[in-house]
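Possible regression after last week's pipeline update?

I re-ran a chain I had predicted before the update to compare outputs. Posting the input and the new output here so someone can diff against the archived version. Not blocking, just want to make sure nothing changed silently.
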Amino acid sequence: MSVEHYQHLIVGLCEAVGLPDAETALARSAIEVEGFEVLLGYYDNDPEAMYLNFTFGSVTSGRSLRVYRLMLEANLSLYAQDQAQLGLDADSGVVLLVVRVPMLDGVDGPYLADTINHYIEHGRYWRENILLAEDEMFESLSLGEYTWMRA
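New output (post-update):
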């Protein structure tokens, strides 16, 4: 695969979701979907795949260790099966979900749109139930009173 194939996929994604300016998406390597920034990446050291980086939000002070534990649990039990993992942006401390998408024959604009929508649901869950949750709800989650979403 090549950077040209990656660019073709981004143009197809923009067409599938009705974004009129694919050139801006390509230039920024990012789109915004329902309030979530999604960074679009292609790297020469992994030419067979593209990457979707979802920005979920910041960790509230005082919750860091418990949120990091939940992120590790999610990586082991949920995201390991679909080439995705939660992490932190080293500069800002923002929670990111990185998804590796192999650029295979069946991957096209509508497939990318479906994949992005799927992980936006995960982002909503993390934002509403973990990152921005009221203290009482967060305490329940951090004590293990939860069920993980299906990947």
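Follow-up from reviewer: compared with the archived run. The longest strand covers residues 49-58. Marking as no regression found.
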